[in-house]
Automatic annotation (TrEMBL):
<feature type="domain" description="ParB-like N-terminal">
    <location>
        <begin position="5"/>
        <end position="115"/>
    </location>
</feature>
<dbReference type="GO" id="GO:0007059">
    <property type="term" value="P:chromosome segregation"/>
</dbReference>
<dbReference type="InterPro" id="IPR036086">
    <property type="entry name" value="ParB/Sulfiredoxin_sf"/>
</dbReference>
<protein>
    <submittedName>
        <fullName>ParB/RepB/Spo0J family partition protein</fullName>
    </submittedName>
</protein>
<dbReference type="InterPro" id="IPR003115">
    <property type="entry name" value="ParB_N"/>
</dbReference>
<dbReference type="Pfam" id="PF17762">
    <property type="entry name" value="HTH_ParB"/>
</dbReference>
<dbReference type="GO" id="GO:0005694">
    <property type="term" value="C:chromosome"/>
</dbReference>
<dbReference type="InterPro" id="IPR041468">
    <property type="entry name" value="HTH_ParB/Spo0J"/>
</dbReference>
<dbReference type="Pfam" id="PF02195">
    <property type="entry name" value="ParB_N"/>
</dbReference>
<dbReference type="InterPro" id="IPR050336">
    <property type="entry name" value="Chromosome_partition/occlusion"/>
</dbReference>
Amino acid sequence: MPETRMIPRAQLLEPPLPIRMGIDEQALGDLADSIKRHGLLHPLIVVPAHVTSANGELAPSVAGAPPAEVLQLRWEIVDGHRRYLASLIAGLDELECKVYDTLDDAKFGVMLDANMMRQDLSPAEEGVQFLELAESRGWSMPQLMRYFGRSEAYINERVTLVKNFPDVFRVVAERGINWTQAKAVMRCPDKNWRAYMLDQAVTHGASSRTIVNLVDQWKTLQLAKDSQPAVHTTEHAVIIQQAERPKCTWCLRNDDQANFISLPVHSYHVRDLQDFLKRTGITPEDSGETHGPK
């Protein structure tokens, strides 16, 4: 992880091959005015570049201790050359910099900063980024939390997506489902059921609530398959289900059973249908009273 520090302007070296070959003087002057008013809002990204001889020859950036023959300590700008030039005009004596050990690390840091500026970074992309930093760069959880300003749960959820749910990861990376839907699917450990839920979400637009209902349905089937007692009973309790007289979806009455018909609807859509009827005023809130249409 980079170290952020204030570095005297005299110790900073311009990049040997600036990315911006031509710089608009007017825009540079506007940036200098902004720095005078608000300060340097975005730090420069630099790497060690030590002067190792009297003629100013530079040693390559190497992680760890500088060479024994170092004469002067310098820092080469990797990103922020334009901000550096504007800071000269603004008269800053010290500039805030993120210091990386090597050029490769600095380039990776530039990529990270670019990603952080993106508003459309998906949870799948975030998970890959967190995992790369942890496994390849050795970043700890506190470092990730501090750098990205995210909670441990936020980071762990996205890393879990990448490591444990490749099927869900693929659909999230393709932006086929949103993060709420993805988290609902990840509640199910059964790969075949997850494939069905993903198809329902992508092809048929199943909401996260519908997916949660499907997960609950899977759990119920698993309990029946394993001959386990229901979660609300003691281990050896006998479950006695008493048949309940069905109610009319329209009026909530359970009389006149002879005129009831079968209304085809998926089991996981029943709750959504009932909520819809309540919102439209067709079916009143079930308060123990029965009402007919007005």
